[in-house]
Amino acid sequence: MDLGQAQAEYVREVDPEALDALARAGSPEPPPGAARARRGRGGAGPAPAVKPVEPAPPTRKGRGAAINPPNRFESQSQAPFDDGWSTLEADFSDLPPLPTTLIRDTSRTVIAYNQSPDIGFDRSVNPYRGCEHGCVYCYARPSHAYLGYSPGLDFETKLLFKPDVAELLEKELRKPGYVARPLALGSNTDPYQPVERTMKLTRSVLTVLDRFNHPLSIVTKSAGVTRDIDILQAMARRDLVRVWLSVTTLDSALARSMEPRASAPALRLRAVEQLARAGVPVGVLAAPMIPGLNDAELEKILEAAAKAGAATAGYVLLRLPHELKQIFEDWLHRHYPDRARHVLELVRETRAGAMNDAKFGQRMTGTGAYADLLARRFDRAARALGLRHRAELDCAAFAPPPEARKGFAEAQLSLF
Fold first, then answer.
1. What percent of the chain has pLDDT over 90?
2. Which pTM value belongs to this model?
3. Do residues 244 and 218 lie in contact, with contact meaning Cβ atoms separated by under 8 Å?
């Protein structure tokens, strides 16, 4: 598209008949000469000063974020601008639902290592980058900036997938000197987000880990994890797997707006029940706890988890790194304007006056009286409900299976 065509797409002319209709309906009279100004001519007199209006983008159906904040690594950014005739607002009202775009990830390695003292694993695999669940509070949103995208709507609509994740994983597990430690699935984005139903990349990873007797833990907000109960049950018999279901709230209305494409809370608890019945060690994460919004549900979530058969539980306080602060605050003012100020004040109280604190040792639990009370509430409820058992995973059973023998023709070709 050339520059002329691009400009033509954004040309908006003022229809004189439409202006007359607005005037007859009692609307304010347009500036003098408005009809002539549509052809690029000046009006008969000086136009009154009009302050440009920049309406907020509407909430897109099925999406958590409503905005696409600028990528913090980019030197330039774009912002909507209205010309004073409400054309931008009209444009927003006509926007179609945002589709999900799949982009091939060309990474040549799939195991990511970390040295964080705050988490119980030192390695992870993410078959997808970006997450269609659209959880507005997701701490992984800012990681999308490293890929050149916005942590806002881009994070939940522009997904990268690794089609050869299983082959790359097997190659890394066969490296000489590799020492097995529990590997995490779902540390950054959900391995069972909607696209997994058709792509089945997570299942391909499980198949490799099962063959190698490699221990793993899974964190998900999707009841879709039960699709792979056959592999998980077989691995559980060898003490190789632990599954965590994240349950943020029991309020379906809150869940629908806060995590629009994740499984409903009742379905997640049903998945806990199915996994426990199959002998798969399962726990529940009440995460994140958002002060003044869902933290009052902590004990009820743990009670529901214990009733469903969970053996262990955990919680994490809301984290708002980088662009996530703007995304969450925008969502809060849209959906809960009556309590937005109070919630944000409580968040700052748990983060030493800031919106986020990334210090090791306190980024998951916060500091201050409010955070301490939340920690004591969790300890008391978990102890009373018996949610303390954490299955130990077997790292000693790891053993790469023999490689499949190549055919004669393939072996000959490999010499060239």
1. 66
2. 0.78
3. yes
When mean pLDDT is compared across 18-22, 96-100, 371-375, the lowest value belongs to 18-22
CATH of domain 101-385: 3.80.30.30
Token reading at 119: 């988490």
- Contacts of 188 by beta carbon, 8 Å cutoff, 6+ apart: 112, 124, 126, 129, 140, 143
Taking the CA atoms of residue 381, residue 383, residue 386 and residue 392 in that order, the dihedral angle to the nearest 10 degrees is 120
Give backbone dihedrals phi and psi of 311, rounded to 5 degrees, phi first. -100, -20
Q: CB within 8 A of 151, min separation 6: which ones?
A: 69, 71, 141, 142, 143, 144, 145, 322, 323, 324, 327
Residue 86 has pLDDT above 80, yes or no: no
Alpha-carbon gap, residue 283 to 310, rounded angstroms: 5
Whether the Cβ atoms of residue 47 and residue 29 lie closer than 8 Å to each other: no
Alpha-carbon dihedral of residues 38, 44, 46, 49, nearest 10 degrees?
-40
Which tens digit of pLDDT belongs to each residue from 114-151?
988 888 899 999 999 999 999 999 999 999 998 989 99
